[in-house]
Amino acid sequence: MLKTFTRWLFLVFVCTLFLQTSVLGEEKKTVVVSAEGLADANADIYKKDKGIMVDDLRNDAKKQIIEKAVGVYVDSQTLVQNYVTLEDKVFSRSSGLIKQVIKESSPWVGDDGFAHMLMKAEVYISDLKAALNDMSKSQRISLIKSQGNPRISVLIQARDAERGGNANKERSDIAENKLKERIKKFGYTVWSETSSEDPTKKPDFTITGEAKFKSLKHKLAASGLVIEKVVLTSWSVKCVNRHTSEEIYFNNKIPKKKSWNTEDEAIEEIGDIIGTEFSADFFTDHLNQPIKTFQLEIAGLPDFDTAEMFKKEFMGLRSILNVDFRNFNANGISVYEIDFGGVSGNFSSMLNEGVIKPLNAKLGADTFKLMSAEGNAVKISFKSKMDKAMIQKTLESLPPTSVAQATPERLNSIVKTKKTEDKVKEIATFESGGSVMNSREIKSSIKNF
Questions:
Q1: DSSP class of residue 318?
Q2: Which domains are delineated in the chain?
Q3: pTM for the whole thing?
């Protein structure tokens, strides 16, 4: 009896362990997102009940977190056009899509007429994408934008292994044409390189390859006939994502036991072999990688405190999932690490529309200017006629940069009084769910978040 019970207990233990392992193995994908919740600090309802304002701040922050996560898959224009439907079907589901709130700041009331709260949360990104796909089908709208026609340039070179150096390198039209045929079968565009600096005129990917051949001669003893074969001595092929400069594919493994009657036959088959290394999904998967981490350098900010205040400005922007202020040096270079979410292959355009344009809407045209975006490094210049004190006053007294790109629906939700609507620089002091902080306290709250 005891043995039977022991076996039964052991079986239960094994089954439980198996189930736990299975659940862990199927753990859902998540992404961490930071956002800023806003509420109209002048609204009468908040003067009467502090708790309501804190609740509304928290709810707005969660909506912004979900909206940012949606922006990973849905471009900004589509999001704005379908905001009402998304708010009803997706944004309102924060309790099911947010795994956990990692941290939130103490609420405060600023000189811009708004109460503020910063929040960082972990979002079920796989569940979010599934919800968007379901919504696309039920509402008969295309939400998730796919980069279905990547532009690909090709450069394949061949040379004689017995002659050293690069002098005998020749571009192989035969191998390139075979590879181009395969690319066109995917429905993609074969792109020619140009000298233009315009990013819209550059390819999304570049495939380059090099093959070295040599001739082998063998004389048949019986007949004296000399048989000549062409063999491959080395080859390499790589593919580079031109938007990020990332080398996303590399192979230098030589095909074994291969020989050809002529070099043209060899080059043609090499073109076929290179082509088989790439599938239709290979390019779109890399082009549609939704979340990328970049180092952002801003040249020209007047001091450390100003650079730190911009962390909050960045945090509110739809395309920026997370931001960490890393460094400020004596040369006026401020360094941030930014998790950027978006589906467009043209990263420079996204920076201009999603970051620089709303910042300039607050601080003046041409204050920020994109200097370069290469690989995972972005450089922006800052130049303002305002002095340090005026810059900080503007950042504190005007509404957050995120308001410049907010939808009408969100503005209707967070702006409840004419005073805030007019973007007053001075607000009435009153007891609220968040205390009225001075400039130093606001900076401390941002720094410690």
A1: T
A2: 2-139 (no CATH), 151-287 (3.30.160.180), 291-407 (3.30.1360)
A3: 0.63
